[in-house]
């Protein structure tokens, strides 16, 4: 299953459409990161509205993507986490730090990215 | 003191009766509760109920409520009417009243007291009705209805675009707090809210389990993309939060609902 | 009894998805709410992934259970493998511990998401993890 990586302005938008096997997730991670490099994207939005399960593997992978993207110069926002998924993740990882930025939907995700990049451009720290 | 507040509320509810009743009925219709009822019948029933509520606020006496509850319970059990329809109606009226109070008194320092006075009266009306049902019906309430009732009894109010307020009132046990967490998170997604205020003014005491649920709510809400402001933490409750080892610096708190609301407005404008 | 008990053999990461699907379907049928469905499905995901990552091969049984004492229904998930076993159960139950490089929340995570958790393991023989969730 190939997941399309769309480019909007200077951001990449990835919409995960169905449950993915571990291999597919890892392939997606590679695709995203090479695409960020290719187009010098400044932001990445991952929409996971379609996911009704996010286990620790998926959580870690998302977190990895965000950290690596950061090193490549792109900020990441995850959008569309479902309420039940959020609650489960909190129970799961009550002691781990969830280092992803999240927004309710795509629109707010884009807003958030723009604000973050603006602030960074102005020399401010997060 | 609360007597005066109730009287003041009753006068307001009388003055704005048409507007509030209309809003109430339309909210109930939205919930799909009134589909098989004619408009005349709706008007009659809701006017009756509304007047009973107002007079309860005015007199502080619950006799009318009790009589009404006994009647309706008998009828409902005979006609297999859903319990949540009748209890839910009352709770919806509470939401309508509370939203109204928020708008009217948002800059008044009695806001918390008025909200809590309103909730106290309506909650008592609800419990009288619920009791009548239990007495009337030997049957066990189905799990589903119980859940629907609980969900309805959690007052998540949308006060502005993107802002929700959850005024918690009374003793909260662990089972209920779990339900509250789930309901609140669903509402955040439903209303696409980016700021939530959880007001604990009306909660005398929370145990560590409930405190934990509140912290989890804040974290889960954040994961959805919403910030939480907690207002009205009493000193003993603050102590509980510290004792269970919550990093208070990660919480946004304000001492009362009014200042919380102000902060929320500022945050929304950013 | 066939509708209330399902067995799935776990060999690859694709089987994790199958097991999750079966678990969610049963949780839904039993009347668990959406949050509990998600917790159960996630716990199944954590445990079956453990099988795939550490031993490569195992089996999961997902079934409906009833408690006469508590007068309640629930769901039980039993994951077994014939892998190397676990030396120190205490250690792996600590959140954050991991030998395979995931978040290290596999076992401890499954434990936190469920009502009951039981693990039996013999080094060299294999491991069996049993988890339960009761309807509220």
Sum this structure up briefly.
Chain A: InterPro entries: Bact_StressResp_Reg, STAS_dom, STAS_dom_sf. Chain A: This is STAS domain-containing protein. The complex is a heterotrimer of chains A (about 130), B (about 270) and C (about 140). Chain A has about 130 residues and is of the alpha/beta class.
Mean pLDDT of chain A: 86
Q: What is the string of SSEs of chain B from the N terminus onward?
A: HHHHHHHEEHEHEHEH
Counting DSSP E segments of at least 2 residues, the number of strands of chain A comes to 5
Number of domains of chain B: 2
Query: Rg of chain B to the nearest angstrom?
Result: 19 Å
CATH fold call of chain A: Transcription Regulator spoIIAA
The residue ranges of chain B in which pLDDT falls below 50 over 5 or more consecutive positions are none
Q: Which strand-content bin applies to the residues of chain A?
A: 15-25%
Question: Hey, which two chains have the biggest interface?
Answer: A-C, 24 and 27 residues
Total domains of chain A? 1
Distance between the termini of chain B: 39 Å
Low-confidence stretches of chain A: none
Q: Treating each run of at least 4 consecutive H or I residues as one helix, how many helices of chain B?
A: 11
| Helix/strand order of chain A | EEHEHEHEH
CATH topology assignment of the largest domain in chain B: Globin-like
Helix/strand layout:
The complex is a heterotrimer of chains A (126), B (270) and C (136).
Chain A: E1 5-8, E2 11-15, H1 22-39, E3 43-47, H2 56-71, E4 75-79, H3 83-92, E5 101-103, H4 106-121
Parallel strand pairs in A: 2-3, 3-4, 4-5
Antiparallel strand pairs in A: 1-2
Helix pairs in contact in A: 1-2
Chain B: H1 2-15, H2 17-30, H3 39-59, H4 63-79, H5 83-105, H6 111-136, H7 143-152, E1 157-160, E2 163-169, H8 174-191, E3 195-202, H9 208-224, E4 227-231, H10 235-243, E5 252-254, H11 257-269
Parallel strand pairs in B: 2-3, 3-4, 4-5
Antiparallel strand pairs in B: 1-2
Helix pairs in contact in B: 1-3, 1-6, 2-5, 4-6, 5-6, 5-7, 8-9
Chain C: E1 5-10, H1 13-30, H2 34-55, E2 58-67, E3 72-81, H3 89-92, H4 106-113, E4 116-122, E5 126-134
Antiparallel strand pairs in C: 1-2, 2-3, 3-5, 4-5
Helix pairs in contact in C: 1-2, 2-4
Protein name (chain A): STAS domain-containing protein
Domain STAS (chain A): 1-113
Organism (chain A): Candidatus Ethanoperedens thermophilum
């Amino acid at each position: 299953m190939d997941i399309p990586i769309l480019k909007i302005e200077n951001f990449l938008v990835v919409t995960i459409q169905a449950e993915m096997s571990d291999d597919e997730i890892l392939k997606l991670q590679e695709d995203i990161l090479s695409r960020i490099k290719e187009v010098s994207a400044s932001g990445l939005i991952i929409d996971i509205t379609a996911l009704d399960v996010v286990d620790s593997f998926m959580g870690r992978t998302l977190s990895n993507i965000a950290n690596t993207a950061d090193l490549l110069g792109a900020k990441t926002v995850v959008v569309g986490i479902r309420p039940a998924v959020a609650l489960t993740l909190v129970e799961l990882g009550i002691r781990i730090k969830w280092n992803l930025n999240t927004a309710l939907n795509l629109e707010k995700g884009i807003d958030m990215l723009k604000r973050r990049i603006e602030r960074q451009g102005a020399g401010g720290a997060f | 003191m609360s007597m005066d507040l109730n009287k003041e509320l009753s006068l307001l509810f009388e003055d704005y009766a048409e507007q509030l009743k209309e809003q109430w009925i339309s909210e109930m219709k939205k919930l799909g509760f009134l589909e098989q009822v004619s408009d005349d019948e709706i008007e009659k029933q809701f006017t009756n109920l509304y007047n009973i509520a107002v007079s309860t606020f005015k007199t502080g006496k619950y006799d009318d409520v009790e009589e009404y509850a006994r009647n309706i319970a008998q009828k409902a059990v005979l006609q297999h009417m859903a319990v949540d329809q009748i209890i839910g109606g009352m709770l919806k009226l509470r939401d309508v009243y509370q939203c109204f109070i928020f708008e009217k008194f948002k800059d008044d320092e009695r806001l918390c007291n008025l909200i809590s006075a309103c909730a106290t009266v309506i909650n008592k009306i609800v419990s009288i009705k619920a009791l009548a049902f239990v007495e009337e019906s030997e049957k066990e309430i189905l799990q589903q209805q119980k859940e629907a009732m609980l969900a309805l009894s959690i007052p998540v109010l949308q006060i502005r675009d993107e802002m929700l307020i959850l005024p918690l009132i009374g003793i909260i046990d662990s089972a209920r707090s779990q339900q509250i967490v789930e309901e609140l998170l669903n509402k955040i997604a439903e209303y696409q809210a980016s700021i939530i205020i959880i007001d604990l003014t009306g909660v005398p005491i929370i145990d560590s389990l409930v405190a934990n649920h509140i912290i989890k709510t804040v974290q889960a809400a954040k994961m959805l993309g919403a910030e939480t402001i907690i207002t009205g933490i009493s000193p003993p409750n603050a102590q509980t939060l510290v004792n269970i080892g919550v990093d208070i610096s990660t919480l946004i708190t304000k001492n009362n609902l009014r200042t919380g609301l102000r902060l929320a407005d500022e945050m929304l404008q950013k | 009894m066939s509708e209330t008990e399902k067995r799935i053999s776990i060999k690859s990461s694709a089987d994790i998805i199958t097991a999750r699907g079966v678990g969610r379907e049963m949780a839904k049928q039993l009347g668990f709410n959406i949050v509990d469905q998600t917790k159960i499905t996630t716990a199944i995901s954590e445990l079956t992934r453990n099988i795939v990552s550490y031993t490569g091969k195992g089996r999961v049984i997902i079934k409906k259970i009833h408690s006469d004492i508590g007068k309640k229904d629930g769901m039980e998930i039993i994951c077994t493998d014939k892998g190397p076993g676990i030396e120190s159960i205490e250690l792996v139950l600590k959140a954050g511990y991991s030998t395979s490089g995931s978040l290290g929340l596999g076992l401890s995570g499954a434990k936190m998401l469920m009502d009951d958790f039981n693990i039996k393991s013999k080094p060299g023989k294999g491991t069996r993890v049993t988890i339960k969730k009761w309807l509220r």
